[in-house]
# Entry
Amino acid sequence: MNSAVDLILIFLILSNLALLGLSRLGACIRVAALQGVALGLLPLFLVESGPAAHQLFFSALLIGLKGIVFPWLLTIVLREIQVQREIEPFIGYGSSLAFGTVFLIVSLWLGSRLPLPISMQSGLIVPSAFFTIMSGFFLIIARKKALTQVLGYLVLENGIYAFGAALSENQPVLIELGILLDLFAAAFVMGIAVFHINREFEHIDTDKLSGLRT
# Structure
């Protein structure tokens, strides 16, 4: 058992619950930033023999993008659109936390049942990754604000990354860099899209945007 890995994974679970229960968009961005920093540290503690140079570089890049650049971009968008809270989401915050509890239980069950090709350093790796993926999906479908849905997309990717980091210790760095580049482009484009949506329609509620088809 690696206590540092366990602490990071417990923080990952708690940050997901915070994102499900918070209504202030600024606070959600800060929590997502801390989650990105934690994920950047995770690979360093998964290597028993100590991280290699390319792993240190990739972790620094991951922390820079997920912990600084993406939150900075979203904070700029949040300042421009002048929206502080997610008001009247599709699913309320109390119900969201209840769903989160169910997702966590399901994730723990899946983690205990899923056959894995290698032994894990912590029994929480797979459940926390599944829980993060489910929380990201839930934020995308349960919130109205496009900015919160962008955060959901980032959280969803965090879960996929956590799962991949646990299973593929020796994943080629070029593939990891390619995935990060795609994520950066997606977050950049979505931030610009949210800004222009707010400028044209004076809101970023996706349920109202669906009425444009009629």
